[in-house]
Amino acid sequence: MRLAWLLLFTPFTPCAVGAAPLLRSEGVATLPNGTTAYREVHWQRGAGDGSERWVEYLCPAGQPFARKQMPAAVRAQARGYVLQDARSGQAARVMVGRDGVQVDWKENTSAPSRTKQLPLPADAVIDAGFDAAVRAHWQTLLGGTPVSLPFLVPGRQRFYPVQVQYRGPVRWQGLAAHSVDVRLDTWFGAVAPRLSLVYADAGRRLLEFHGTSNLRDARGDYPQVTVRFSAPAAEQPEQRWRDELQRPLVSSCVVTTK
């Protein structure tokens, strides 16, 4: 089974590339006490929501412990992805096709892999596609009308209805921005706590995420984090992308304090 999961991640090996520029941005995830939990390095080929993307999750000291790949897609808010976390052994593979969505999920190193085929709801949202969905419904949200969307929770292998609602304009590190809340549209117990997002007014760029991390911590919990993206994505040389994505994942991070 371990070999099978490793084979799922061969797309991370850089190979043929296109003409679109490689853009890199970085976010810092902090715990409620201010401690840095990890950093997120986002790579994408081209500026569109549907462009191919990669995410590296780094220990506070800089070593990568997890990676995620999202293929290019016409339907940016509902595309598949592949995730591997070397700390917990958590792994996911979500494949979107004409017949629906296949979700392969492994909670941790000792847990069995679970596979389920699901129908793809209209206006479905998968993983980071939520960001594209907010921009797609931007005018509706800013007009004061909440938007309900079916959101995939891969660990539970089903879609849950969530409601996205505009909370109003804010200032974020001196920038004009907008606050958006996300919550379950129906009560399902402790499936997903409330999330809050902040988007820049100029360019509708995600500035801040506050909610539950999608990665387990050293205790096996999904911690509450605030992820801030202070700078917009900037073009970087291809060799840097190759070098970063080929670094081996570490199985643990050094614990740091504020």
Alpha carbon gap, first and last residue: 39 Å
Strand content: 35-45%
Binned, the helix content reads: 10-25%
Order of helices and strands: HEEEEEEEEHHEEEEEEEH
Quick take:
With 258 residues, the protein is mostly beta strands.
Protein described:
- The chain has helices spanning 2-7, 129-136, 138-142, 238-245, and strands spanning 22-30, 36-45, 53-58, 64-70, 81-85, 91-97, 100-106, 114-118, 147-153, 158-172, 175-184, 195-200, 206-212, 224-228, 234-236.
- It has 258 residues and is mostly beta strands.
- β1 and β2 form a beta hairpin.
Indicate the topology.
Elements: H1 2-7, E1 22-30, E2 36-45, E3 53-58, E4 64-70, E5 81-85, E6 91-97, E7 100-106, E8 114-118, H2 129-136, H3 138-142, E9 147-153, E10 158-172, E11 175-184, E12 195-200, E13 206-212, E14 224-228, E15 234-236, H4 238-245
Question: Which structural traits does this protein have?
Answer:
single chain; 258 residues; mainly beta; 15-stranded antiparallel sheet; globular; disordered N terminus
